[in-house]
Structures are given as structure tokens and as C-alpha cells.
User: Fold these one by one.
Assistant:
Number 1:
Amino acid sequence: MTAAAPELTTAPPREADSGHLRLDALTKRFTGRSGTVTAVDRVSLDVEPGEFITLLGPSGCGKTTTLRMVAGFEDSSSGSILLDGRAIDGIPPQRRPMAMVFQSYALFPHMTVAENIAYGMRLQRRTRDDIATSMRMAVTSMNLVGLEDRSPHELSGGQQQRVALARALVVQPKVLLFDEPLSNLDAKLRDAMRAEIRRIQKMFGITSIYVTHDQDEAMSMSDRIVVMNKGRVEQAAAPGEIYARPASVFVADFIGRANFLEAVPERVGGSGVTVTVLGRQLTVAAHPKVTAGATGAYLMVRPETVRLSAVTDAGTGMGVVLRSTFHGPTIDYEVETTGGTITVTEPGVDPREALAEGTNVDVSLDPERAYLLTQD
Amino acid sequence: MTTTLTDSGPSTSPEVAAPPRRRRSDLGVRGLIAAVAVLVAIGAVVPLVAVLATAFSPDALPRYTEFFTSWVDLAVLRNTLVLGTLVGLCGTALGFLFAFVQARLDVPGKKILHVIALMPIVSPPFAIATATVVLYGRRGVISNGVFGVEYDIYGLDGLVFVLSLSLFPVAYLGLLGMLRALDPALEEAAMNMGASRWQVLRTLILPLVAPGLVAPFLLLFVEAIADLANPLVLGGDYTVLAGRAYLAVTGEYDVTGAAVYCVILLVPSLAMYFAQRRWMNRKVRTTITGRPSGSVHPITGWARWPVYALALLAAAVILSLYGTVIVGSMTRVFGIDNTFTLDYLEEVVAGVGVEAVLDTLMFAAIATPVAGLVGLVIAWLVVRHLDRTAWLLDLGGTLGVAVPGTVLGIGFVLAYRPDRWIGPVHAIPSLVGGSAIAGGAVAIVLAYVVRSIPAGQRTAVASLTQLHPYIEQASTDLGASPLQTFRRVTLPLIRPALLTGLSYSFARSMTSVSTIVLLVTPQTKIITSQVLSAASTGRYGVAFAYCTVLTALVLAGFALIRVLVGTGAALQRTATSERQKS
């Protein structure tokens, strides 16, 4: 687990005791008839005030369970949750200063938009004027003006989403929780709402935990991404770091696309590790666990960092094009090499000018953008 | 570029511009419609028309003036409405209590409570009433024996007690379904914003459930005012319209008067019934934008115990009543002479009762598959094949519950007792009464069918509505005719609904009484009418024995239907997901 990249923390500075969340070896075991399942396994995490953290992983990886433990809907089996240094484990959800935006939005169908937004504030026994002021601000900042007296079912999906967000914001939570809030929206709206959520979150500077299985969403919104697999944290780092220097084969494979070329680390030096790949010697960055001579090491190469060039003499190239797929902005090639079949993404050209299947090609890797890691 | 044209107005794309051409219906479908329509007409429409014709014949008209100027008659009307209202309120409250405990409380023994709450569905109509007299009446085993009071159970209080207990399962099932369908995320959202359990209940659950309380109230109202059995046994001098009409036919041989009472009973029945349907069909005010998420957080605090205790008390009362039925069938005079005896059961299964048992079984066995099938076919036609005329068929099918059984029975008497001659031809022989063909069996089976159709129809409509039409369209597209599609695709998919429908139909046939008491003849005996005569002459042991046997037969019938139909995949799926939830 790596620390947050400070240069990417974009939230405004806040006082030290406002929304600092710490998970300490948080564990959740479910006991069913088929035995005990550890859904969340010793997850530790430090979330800075104002930070936007995404829990990312395939379904069943424990991300939602982690979020629900933070909210208080599930009790942890062991470990603890600390908010601003105080353990909040035994505190019921209604007394935790957090607000959640649900996947189904969970708008109260028997209340209008305004009543939905006012619900939490009324429970806080705030004055009528105070509620009205907060309401006005929320409605304005969320572009909901004129919809106050509508019923939730009269709203579009995006509007419902904004009401859910407004309802969560006005209770002034220390932590905002998002449970896959965009998965029910269509693609265009989803893009717009991503930007909207991020804008609002930065504006209020609220610590946020966002659960998603959509890597694109995670990459575009987060200060830091926590990649989870089988209940454990595989890596927690800024999106750029996760993409360029994944901590494991799982992370590399889950985030974006990756080729894995078997490589034997020959020499570990100050400028990187020297490996021989596809018959060429390269010096690349490597995961700290990689040692010289270790077996089971792989060079991770992103498809878009590879370049192909056709060679005219048959048998002299490093590989043969098996298949090409036109995507518009890009063309994907599958290339058979001595190190296995790799995928290469080239900027799009006219499909008629693409490399034909069966073409002999030279493959050039960019050592700056390759990363050496071990299998385990 | 054709792709950019999609937004340029519908007139350019031919599949939007052309109105959907109405397909000529398949011959098989038309045949089905005709068959079903004829059956519904003979079984429900003709009797109803016969009642209306008699009630609005010239010599009946002065009777309305008499009715509305007679204090006695007006009291009967008031009694009926008061009874309906009270049973609606109490039964709905009881149903809500059980549903709330089941869905929201973290308490032990909920599975058993569920079974207890469903017991009244399969019980014969007089069981609870008779057991109530024995346990809680003037010389009641509990009221007098334990508490030493001489409580007069006959009258409104006894009727409300018995009818609420007998009818509340419908309310319970409906409300349970509704509570379970509430998206748990709503509750979590409220908790998340600081609402306590009590605040969640007050601001969220109750307001969301409140509209749902109306439908069970109306339904129980209809059932309560239509009930004939309980007022006969337990009414005392508290007369209601159904009993009054019955008396007019059987005691006073005043058919015109009976028809007038029927019409006056029909007005609130039909009004409430159709109000209930409207209420259920109105657009539901919920937003379902994603899959429901989160988990139910049952109430765990001390506050659950008083609520639980209340439900346990009600369950204990229900158990005491059924226990009395079983014990009472095996003791000489339960509460007074508790000697074990098998005389009563023997009388029922090996003595004079055999005839009634066999007749009832045979008629119900004929009626159940017919009713189940007709209900299913109506549902299928209504949901899939008829657009403009669907409501008419749907309406015809539901007449069996919307029209009080007594009214239907009187309709049968009016329509089918006399021989019908067209010229010299003996067109329709008498179906009802002493000289009826087959001893009145035809009319009884017909009445069973008509009274049972709605049960199957309702479950099938619900199930078919959920089945996406694309599935059937895929079958049609592959070359299957509508009937082939129905048999090979639809039927297997809605098998659970068929199972439920058939079970309900069988239970309803076996326990049907208000129509049947008017149709039995010396040649055909029916268990329920035997219970009525035993109970009203104070031979409680025999009545209990009949009830016990009847309940056993209904349960055996359920098992048989289950074996014949097979449990559908959907049922099993539900069971598994239920298990995972808990």
C-alpha cells in the first residue's frame, strides 16, 4: 500500500479534525451454511480530509461491504473504523456524521423533491430559516431549481441522482459515501454526472468514499484508487500511479489492458532493472519485490506503448500480425511474437492502410512506460 | 448518412408511421374465448340477470319503499354496513400486525407464526364460529371455565371476532408482500441521515404502507358482508342482509323479497369490490430506478416485545380455535364430557356422512381443474390477446367473488329451478331443486367453478403480467401458434401461479357454503351444509368431525395438486433467495 500522492490531492485544506477517516485492519466474515467467507480481509486505509477515494474491484471483492461497514449498516468482525481519531465501531448509522448516495438513489417516493432534501435537516432539528437557506443553496448548486415540488417519479434518472446528492450534502456530513451511484445512468449522463459529483465534492471539500466497478469512472474522478480483490487491498495509489506502476498482475489486468511478457531480471541497478525481452535488452522500472534472477517476473506493457513497423524480408521480423480490429480512433493488432501473442494499439488510420494480416513486423517497446512485476 | 436521420421525425421511418396492424385472431383463440364466455355467462351472468330481473319486476318495486321505510329492514342494512366496516378494520389491523412482525421484527418463531396466520384459508367456514361458541361463548371452556364470565358471544361482537380471524390472511399476505417489497435502501437512506428506528417507522414505513391498507380493508368489507355462514351460526338476533335474503328464500319462500335484499346487498358489495380493484390498479407511487439494494434491518430493541406479544396472543387464539375443532371431533362433549370418542369421526367417514364427503370430493374434483383452467385462460386472454374487450372478460371472471355467494345462489334458484321450454322442446331441464337432473349436481359443480375462477385468474394475471411478452413473441416468431406458445412456453413458466390457483380453487370449492346451501337437494349432500345443520342444531361434535375431515381433505388435495402440477422453478428460486436473505 502506497501513501497518497500529495501533488494530486486537490481538495482545499481543512482543519485536521474534519473528516479524517481511518480503517484499521477492518475485517468482515459472513457465516453461511457453506462455511465462513471472509468478505473483507484486514483492510487498512487512511483517508485524508477532503480526499476523494474510490474503492474499485470486481463484484464480490468486498468494496461494497467495506462501504457499508463505514456507514454502519454492517458490523465489522474485527478491526476498527476511526473518524477524526475516535473509534466509531459501535455507533449506529443514524448517529454517524456520514451521508450515503445509493445505487438506487433511495429517494422517498411519498415525498417531494424539497421534502426529500429537507428530511435529514428536519431530523437535525434545524430552524426553518436555516433549512430554507440550505435548501436554496442545494437546489441552486445542483441545478434543481423549479423541480422542488415534483415527485421523484416525475424526474429523469440524472435529476433523481442530483436530488440524492443534494439530500446527502445538506446534512453537512463529514464523510460522503457513494455506492455505485452512476450505474443506472446512460453513458452520456454518466460522464456529465462524474464531473458534477467531483465539482460539488471539491466545492464542499468533503471526504468521500466512492464504490464502483467501473475503472474509467475511478480513474477520472479519484484522488486515490483502492483496488480490491477477494477482500484485500491490492493497491492504493493515485490513478496515474496505479496505471503506470500496478502493484500486481491483478491490478495491471483490471485497470486498462496489459500485455505480460515473461522476463528474467538480470541486473538490479539505480536506474532500473535490466531484462531481456523479445531478444532485446531493456532497462525498466520494477516493483520493489523484484530481485535479480527471480523467476515468475513479467514485464507489463500497455498496448498503446508498443509500436509496430513492417519489415519486408520474411522471417526477419520479431512478430507476425494475426488480426487487426478497427475501432475508429485506434486500431488494435494481435501480434504473434516469440514471447506469446500481444495486443498493440496504434492510432487510427484509414483501415485500408492498416497492416495486413500475415505482415512481418518489428515490435518496439518503450522502456519508460513498461513495468516489471512478479506473478504472485 | 442514414444514421443521422433517426431524429428527424417519425414520418420518415415506415415502421413508426404505419399503425400496428391488428392481427386476425387465431381460430383456436376464438374458440377459447367463446367457450369461456359461454361458461361465465351460464354460471354468473344469467343468475345475476335473473336476480336483477326479479328485483326490478313491477311487483317488486313497492318492496323498495317498504324496505326504506321499515325500521327493521333499515336496521338490517345498517347492521350489514357496520359489520363490514368493523371486520375490514379489525382484519386489516390483524393482518398488518402479523405482516409487520414477520417482515420487520427480529423475533424467534416467525415461520410458525406464518403458518398459523395462513391456517384460516384452508379451514371450513363454520370451524372458527363453532369453536368460538364452545370456547368463548356463554358456557365457554375458556370464557366461563377459566375466567368465570358468562359472555354472550352471539351478535356483532362474536361476528366481528370470528370474521376478522377467518378473513385476515388475505390482508396479511398482501401487506407482507408490500412490506417485503419496500426497497431496504430507503430505510438505510433515512437512517443514514440520522433517523432513529422509530423515526424510520413513522416518517417512512407507515406513510409508504398506508395506501396499501385500503385494498385489504375494502376486500374484507366485501367478504364480510357477503358471508352467510357465520351470521347463521353466530348472529343471534343481529341480522344482516345475506342472512335475511337466505331466510326469505328458504323460510318464507318469498323469492321477490329475496331478490330485493340481494340488490341492496349487491350495491355496497360491487361498489367496494370495484373500488378495491381501482385502488390496486392505480399507478403505484414508487421509484424503481435500479435494483433494490441494502439489507433489511429488523427491529431489535425492547419495543419489539409488546408487538410480538400481541401477535402471539392472536396466534394463541387461532390455535385454540383449531385445537378445539380437532379435540372437539374426538371428545363426547368438549368442555363438559371430555371422554375420548371416535363416534363422530366414524359417523362422518364411515356412517351417514360418507355420502356428503364423497359427493363434495367428487364435485370439487370436477370443478377445480375446470376453474383453474378457465381462470388461467381468462388471464391469458386478458393480458395478452384482447385489448378493448379485455375488461369485460376480466369482469365476468371476477363476478364469482364480487357477487356475494348468497346472491349467486338465489340467482341459480331463480334461473335454473324451473324447467325451460322453448315451444314444445324441453330446452333446459331444471338444474336446481328437488326435481333437478342429477340431483342438482350440475348446478353445484357450476357454482363451485364460478366461485373458484377468480382465485386462479388473479394469480395468473399477476404472473403473466410479469412475464415479458418478448418471450412469447420469440416463440411465435419461431412458428408456434398462440395455443402452442401457451402450452409450450407460457404454461411451464407460470406453473407456480397455476399451482397456487388450483390450490385456492380447490380450497374454495371444498369450503364454499353461501351459494351451496341454496343448491343442495335431498339427493346431493355437501359437507359444508352438513356442518351448518349440525352446528345450528347444537351437535358440535359432528360439526367438528366434519370440519376436521374437510381440512384433512383440503390439505391432501393440496399435496395431490402439487404432485400433479409439480413445483415450478420460480418457486424454488424464491425459496433460495429467501434463505439467503435471512
Number 2:
Amino acid sequence: MAGASLRVCAHGHPTLGQLALTLGLLAAAALAALIVAVALGSAAVPLTDSLAVLVGGGDDMSRTLILELRLPRALAAFATGGLLAVAGALMQVLLRNPLADPYVLGLSGGAAVGALLAMLAGLGSALVSGSAFVGALTATLLVFGLAHGTGSWTPSRLLLTGVVVASGWGAVITLILSLSPARQLPGMLYWLMGDLAHARGPGVALGLLVLVCLLVVPLGRSLNVLARGGLQAAALGVPVRRLEWLVYLLASLMTAVAVTTAGSIGFVGLVVPHLLRLVLGNDQRLILPACALAGGTLLVLADTLARTVIAPEQLPVGVITALLGVPVFLFLLHRSR
Amino acid sequence: MTQRLPGVVGLLLMLMAGLVEQAAADEACAIDDAEQEICLTVPAERIVALSPGATELLFAAGAGEQVVAVVDHSDYPPEASELPLVGSHDRLDLERLVALQPDLVIGWVTGNPAGQMERLERLGIPVFRIEPRTFEGIATALERLALLAGREAQGRLAAERFRQGLAELAARYADAPPVPVFYQVWDSPLMTVNDEHLIGKVVTLCGGVNVFGGLARLVPRIDEEALLVADPEVILAGGRGEANRRWLEDWQRFPELTAVARDNLFFIPPSLLQRPTPRLLEGSRRLCDRLEVARGRR
């Protein structure tokens, strides 16, 4: 099973022109999604007013709605979706397993335990985020330390360690949920399902997304070789161990920031990379930046739907990402046979 | 002799009929909020309350001494928190509950697990389910619980006091100028109540207009944007604990809100509003006061 969907596809390597065209189209889609997100909401703001605000005009109410609520939230959604999709693609290469996603090694579990404990203690949203970040880092270091162990290290050892640690976090989460007072539960469940309502200040997440894209694209060729297997990569002169740890730490950092911004939003990190591979082939130099754009676009659209479908009432965004993504993915999978 | 026999039989019959009548008069019957009738031949002596609200209602109805166990978070009146626990309202310790040999269990229609309630009934323990959704529902709950516990006089008194207090508020604010109000149940996710909720009814009673009153769900989850558009004149926060200013300070981010501009951000202890008990009267008084303050700032 491992590697089955990671095989470098018959499409061959894209030329620079194809690469620019694909990324250009995805960037245009992302921009369109952001405009839709800023234009739609439970309050009706005419599109002309929304655009006026973006260039510095508009009345006070529109300015507040767009600059303080919709735009930061849309950018946070974009950054989170992008980070999760890139982290997912990296994890799939690292573990040589198509079922890998950013959360498979228990990082979201650690973050969730941190966030839920902070909520239980009645801390404010900034401290909840901080606690989630600490939880995510703890989980990363724990798995790193345990899998590193006494030397012999393989992706399957890392995967097993991560999966077992993730089950442990899962048990702790269930324990916290069953011991928490009923009134706290909605907040906790929304966090677990992923929710962008309280994502403020998308700066860190966006910055990290850009930085990682610049960093991993030059590594694309080595990652392509790594996806075919560690032995092959080593034979071709790739410093496998160092590359693997770099990929692990980068993916973990991205996931930690994403989870800290918006809770554990599922699905994006698993399916967006596969979706793009079905269409674009498996060249990491193209897939990784494409993941950043497509993941971001998907989450921006999903979040816009989540907050407008039954407005003013709100839905959890994770539900919408799955509802949008599952049919698209199945269609592409069916077509690719 | 033969002529006197019918007389004796008649006397006996009359006596028996009297006894039967006597027994019927001793049987106390009440209909619960799930439309089931519960009849007790003797007043309940060992009562278990399966929600914090039920505990408060029992104490208010004068049956506090008969309560032998409660569930988690039953913190009012203070003596209730010293009673033995039988788990939390959504996860009951049935074993401990049954071992206490209660002769009446006060359940919560939507809050307790239905399966566990049916189990109790199969064991022959009468379960009286309450969940008042109106002011009158609270008053009759006091009377019904008092009846089952043999405390009718106290129950009636408590119910009357509650009805009278609310009637006074209703009379005082019947013609007060309307005030658009937002009631914040929780901050993350942001949740409010509709007009069907008891808190929504208190807002209406005080001459307020709940800006999200028309939504379909009892406790809808909304977004900040909708609140900015609704622009309430008063924001009332309940929420965590008994002294929570943080949620209110959070609204300062939007100085263009009327409620923020006029400093009409008020906290009302949630235990006074969020439980369907006689303390709701005190919560209603405070809420009405706050709206009156807001009217003064126009």
C-alpha cells in the first residue's frame, strides 16, 4: 500500500511554463476565494462597499465588518488551510504512507489536550492558543524522542510511535470531555472540530506558510527521490536522515501553528495533497506550493459557507471541508482509473 | 334479627366505602413535564434530585429535608452541596442511586439519559420529570413537588411569592420604552437565546427586545458580524462563574456598538438566570434594573 499513490506519475516532470501556469491559476482561484469571503457574511455589505473598504474608503460599519472581522478571518483560514495541506503532503512523503496526515503522529492530540485543559481552567482565548501550541510541541518532541530511541530508526517506527502516542492523547481528550461541566462542552467540541471564529491576527501563520514554501521548493528534487524510498534516495546521494528530520520538524511546526490558529480542522491535510497528485502528478516542486494555494482556497471557501449557510447561526468549518472535498476527491479518483 | 341484618351490611358497606375514599384522598397525584402522572400513597420521604435546578426547586418547595442525594453542581442552597452525590446529570451512578432506596426521583426531561430513567422505573422507583419552560411552569413545579413531598402549604406559598414578584415586574415595565438587548450565554462559541428560552422571556418581561429572539433554536450559535449589524443597546453577559468581566471587556473592540458607546455592558450572575428556579425572580429584578439604567442613558 505504501507508496502506491505516491509513485511519480506518468505525467513526467512539468516544464517551468506548466509550473507557472498551474500555480498562476491556483493563485487566481485563491484570490477569488478571498474576495468571495470578504464580500459575503451575515450582514449585507454591497460588493462595491467591500472593495471600497479594501482601498481605504467605506463607512465605519463596513470598515469594522471587513477589516476587523472578515479579512483577518479569511486570511487566517487561508494560512491554516495552506499550512495543513503542505504539512500533510510532507508527512505523506516522510512516512511513505498515503494515509498519513498532519495529525497522524499525535500532534493535534497534544494540542487539543493543551487547549482543553486551558479552557477547563477558564483561561482566555490567547492562553488557550498558547497552551495548544505548547501541547503540540510537547507531542512532537515526545514522538521524536521515543522514535529516535536507541538508534535504529525507520519511517514505520516513527509512524507506529506516533499512532500509539496519538491514541494516548485521544484517551486523555475523552477523559477531559467526560469530566468537564456540561456548559464547557460546546466550546470544547467546536475547538476539536476546528473553528475559525476566534482566529485573530493571521500574521504568524501566513508568514510561516510563505517561509516554508520558499524553503521546501529547493528541496523538491530530494523529496521526489525520498518519496520512492529511503534506500534509493541514499543511493542517489540524498542525506536521508537529515532530510527526514527536517521534514518532520517543518511539518510539525506548520501543524502546530495551524492547530493553534483554528483548532484541529480535519480532512484538508489528508485529501488536498492527494487531490492535487491526481491532477498534477507527484512532483514535490509543484505539489508543495500548489498545496499551499489549494489548501488555503478550500478552507477559505469552506469557512465562508460555514458562517453564511444558516446565518446568523454558525456551523463548524470541518464539516464543510469534508462535504466539499469528499465528492471532488471521489470524482477525481474515479476518473483516474 | 333478620330485619337488622341489611342494616349491619349497609353500615359495613358505608364504612368500607369511607375507607376507600380515605385512601383515595391520601393519594397525591401530579403530572410531570413529560405528561406522566405520578401518584404516591404516602408523601415521599427519600427524594433524589437529578439536576441542580430540581434540587433548588425541592428546597424552595420546603422539601429540602427529604432530599437524600443530588448530582454534581448542585450548589444552591449551600446545604445542598453537602448531600451525597449520585454522579452528574448526564452520567448517573445508578448503583449508588438505587442503594439509597429513594421513594421518589426528580428527573430532568432532556438532561438525564432516557435509558437510565427507564431502568429506574422498571425497578419500581417513581420518576417525576421536570423541565419548566415558562414562569408558570416554575410556579407549578414548586406546587407539584410540594404536593408529592407532603409540603403543600409551603409549596403554595413559594409559588405565590414567585408569581406575585413577576406580576409586579410585569406591571412596572409593561409600558416601558423597548430596549434592544443581546444576552450572551457563552463567548467561544458565541451563543445567545431565542424568545422561547426562559431568559428570553425575562428580557421581554422587562421591556427588552431580544435582538436574536426570532431565531429557530433555543440556544443559537451566532457570529460577531450578526451582532454588529443587530447593534443592541444593551449587552448582558452570563457565562462562567459569578464574576466575569472579561467577556464584556472583549466588546470594547467595537466602539461603534451602541451598547459599548453608552457603556451598557452588564454582567448578571448566570445562576440567577440560567436555572428554572425561584431565584429567577431575583435575576429578573436585576435584569430589569439594568435595562432601566440603559433607558436613563439615552
